[in-house]
Amino acid sequence: MRDGKQVRDEEFRRFMTGHWPRLMRTAFLLTGERHAAEDLAQSTMERVYAAWRRVGSADDPEAYVRRVMINTHARRHRRKLREFLASRDDSDLVDEVADIDDRMAQVDDRRALLEALGHLPARQREAVVLRYWADLTETQTAEAMGCSVGTVKSNAAKGITKLRALPVLGDAVLQRGRK
Questions:
Q1: The whole model's pTM is what?
Q2: Which of 3, 14, 77, 98 lies at a 20 to 30 A Cα distance from 121?
Q3: What CATH number does the domain containing 131 carry?
Q4: How many domains does the chain have?
């Protein structure tokens, strides 16, 4: 007969296996780099494993894990993404993005999109990523970000407006439209 710890470990393993690709996709969009995304997703799962009894019994464990990821990211990545992008040679970034199975894989100029996301403040970036790439509802996004639905709407709208106004993204969209 299996004891409670073995049962919890098995539940955690099933959860992690089933949700890992989605967690990686969200982590990648939050961090902008594959290796940083792997670190973020692993750190998130470490925290979740330590609290699995609480997480597994939550009404929506996936929402709980997203919240842990957002909090972990906020603590670990206070440095602006644009500084990160400016400080490295990102010529291989397009190849790194192609390895991640997500909706961005359909975008022809992934580097332009990542660069544009890097221009957003952290809260706007989180709102845009969770709403439009992770495809969460406003309520789910608000829960993950720890704020009100109105704040999500405001940050997402401001973020989208700012993305539309950025020349780097506008040029990429125009070039795709001409092809």
A1: 0.56
A2: 98
A3: 1.20.140.160
A4: 1
